[in-house]
Amino acid sequence: MRLRNVKNKEEILNASSFLVRNPKDYFGKWSSYFGNSNPIYIEIGMGKGKFIRENAKRYPNINFIGIEKYDSVVARCLPNIDPELKNLAIIRMDALEIDQVFSSEVSRVYLNFSDPWPKKRHHLRRLSSKVFLEKYATIFLDNTDVDICMRTDNLDLFCYSLMSFSEAGYVLRDLTFDLHKNLSDDLVTTEYEDRFSSKGMPIYAVRACRVSKTVNK
Predict the structure, then answer these.
(1) Which residues contact 185 (CB under 8 A, 6 or more apart)?
(2) Model-level pTM?
């Protein structure tokens, strides 16, 4: 997909207090960035940011971080953020570097409408491949329940992801092949999701959980 350029993107990026310009400086200490010990949820590939912005508004006791690779996309997100939000940060980076930015501190990863990389030789680039699952294992909190929440309109990617999650030891919960069927309007959606669901296309979703093995004594 060809990205449209934003003419004043550098000005937008430089002016925003939500864009973290030195994310690796907070490796293992993102609680200090937010000034609290609230749970940290990240969205990898946030697009224009509707999902992460709305969740930050709705859940003020959770710290949200949106990750996006492309400058032009980030520049479309930043002006729409409520300036009063204290629990949202945006990082411009390649997801492959995620284990250089976080360490044993994330409680949830959102993968919303990720690039399906349909060619077989590119499957390891998928955000649900074993390459990325190994990285997530290093950024998740230790000895606690954590999860990966995924939504997609691509059935091949969804089935591939279910296998990847299962092979990595995740428990699959809230699995559905039609997320919007008989669902309330209270669901926080993405821009892509609104477009697809308005056309009657099914949205596939799952919550892959890593259950803590810690036994309560």
Answers:
(1) none
(2) 0.93
